[in-house]
C-alpha cells in the first residue's frame, strides 16, 4: 500500500512541477556551475549523473563550510556523529570511521577516512556532491557517492578579504585571504581561519566538570600555481587543520538503568561515592552527566602537487599527495555521574597517494585512462579503564592496540563517452582494483580473549572489477535524459581486537534514470532521478564489549527518487527545492540485538527493516529575496528549511533506535556596500531550536542508548572587508 501511494505521489509531483514551471514568470538566468566530478569539465546540467554543486557565492551567503551544514542543502546527503566516529551517507549508503562509504576529496586528494574529512573546509570555490556509486572513476569506498571540495585558486591581480565574526556560545571567528601574482607565471593564495569557542553548547550537569563542545579550531592553506611552460602548469597545496578542546560528547539518549553494567553497580562502590548515592543521567537534549577529563586533539596536515600537461590531442594529469592525520580523545564512556568508565583513543593515519590520468577528446569521443596508487598506514590505541575502588578489589581495564594496519591499493581505470549522433551519447567505463592488507592487533583485557602475548597478525588481498555504462539523449536544446548502470564496492577489513577472519568487501549494482531541463528561458532548472540498488555482503557495525565490530550481512536493496528545482521567479525572488523519497530494506539476516537484556547470543531476523541513516523522506525548501537599497547597497534575505522523516541508527527497526522526523530552519541576511568593499552577514542557525540525534549506539556494557546531539540555535554576525581584486 505504501509503495502504491508513493508511486502516485511521485507521478503527481512530476506533473505539479511541470505545471509550476509553465506558470512561472520569466526571471533572471541561473548561472551554470562548472564541475569536474566525472573528471571532465562540464556543467551540472550536462553531467549524466545525479550531482549537486554549491558555488562560492552559495557557500558564503549561507555560511556553509563543511558537511555538517552542507547536508541541509543537498538532497539525500546525511552526516552523523557518535562516539567520536563520523559518517557521511548518501541515499542511505555510508560507512564508518574504518571504511567510509562516501569518498571525500580536497582538490582531487582523496581523504583516507571520514574523520579527517570533517575538519572545517576553508576558502572554497565550490563543493560537488555526486550521488550513487562512483566505482569506475573514484574506486574503493565510493559506493555511496563522492563529495569534492574545490579550493579557490590564486587570482591574476592582488586582492583578498578579512572577516571577523561573533556568535552565541561566545564563539569568535577570524578569517583572512590573500591572493595574487608574485611574478608573471606564479600565483599565490593564502587562507587562514580561527575559531575560539569559550562556552560549550552541551551542558555538563556534573558539579565541578566543564561543559562540552568548546575549544579552538585553526585552518591554514597555501596554494601556489605556476605556469612552468606554455603547455605545463602546476599547483602546490600545503594545508593544516587543528582542533583542541572538548569537541566530543555522547549523551544518554534512551536510559535503561536495569540493563548492562548497571546490573552489578549496586555491588560496586564507585569512587567518591561512599554513601551509595544514586547514579544520575539525563535524556534531556544538549545536557549530559559526564564525570572526569574530556579532551580532544585532532590534526591534519596535507601536501599535494598537481601537474597538468596539455598537448594538442591529449592532456596528462598527475596528483601526488601525502597526508598525516592524528586523532586523540579522552572522555568518560558511560554518560552518567558515576565516571566508572574512562575511554581514551589515539589514532594516526599516514597516507601517500598518486594518480596519473591521460585524457583526450575528438569530435565524437571523450575518453580518460589512468592509474591510482595509495599506501595507507594506520595505528590505533583504544583503552577502557574502570576507575578504582570498585567491588572487584581491583581496577579492571581493556587495552586494544593496533600497531599496524597497512592498506596498499593499486588500480587502473578507463572511461569513454562516444557521440553516436548530435543528440545521443553512449558511455562505458571499467576499473580494476587490488588491495593488499596487513593487520596487526594486540589486546590486554580482564575479559577472556583469543591470542597471547604476541600481536595477532593477518595478511590478505582483495580485488574488484567495477564497470559503468550510460546512454544520454538530448531531448531538446535545453533538456536531456540519461540511463545508467554502475557498480561500486567498499573495501573489507579486519576488526581491531578480533581474531576472526577479515570481513568481505561490500558490492552494489545500481540502475538510474535521470532527466534535466532548463526551462523558461534559463530562469528555472529541473533535475530528477530514479534509482535502484542491489547490495551484496552489506557491511554492518556493532558495538560489543566496549569495541566496534564489523561484519557482513547478506544483502540489501534501495529504491528511490530525487527531484531538484531552482527558479529565479524575477529579479528579486529565487526559490530552490529538493526532494528525496527512499524505500530501503535489509535482506534475510540473523543478528544479535545487544540492546536488550539477554540479547547476547540470541539472534533476530532483520529482513525488511529500513537501512540506517536512510529517512524515507528528505525535503529541502529555500527562498531568497534580493533588493537594491536607496544607498546603492544590496541586501539579500534567505530562509532555508530541511525536513527529514524518521531516521533509524540500528538495523533492528526499533523505535528506541531512531530519531523522529525533524526540520532544521536557517536564516541569513547578507548586506553588501555600494562600492562592494564591505559586507556583513547576520544569521540564525537552527532557527526553531530543533533538537535531534545525529548518531546512536547501543552497548550491552553501559546503561542504555547513547548518541550525539545536533547544535542548538545559534545567532551570530560576520563583517567582511574586501580589498583589491575579488
Task: Write a concise keyword list for the protein shown above.
Maltoporin, Chain A; five-stranded mixed β-sheet; mainly beta; disordered N terminus
Question: Would you write up a description of this structure?
Answer:
By secondary structure, this protein is mainly beta. The protein has one domain: Maltoporin, Chain A, CATH 2.40.170.20. Helices cover 5% and strands 57% of the residues. The chain has a 22-stranded antiparallel β-barrel. The chain has a five-stranded mixed sheet with strand order 3-8-9-6-7. A three-stranded antiparallel sheet has the order 16-41-40, with no helix packed on it. The longest helix has 22 residues, at 2-23. 43% of the residues are buried.
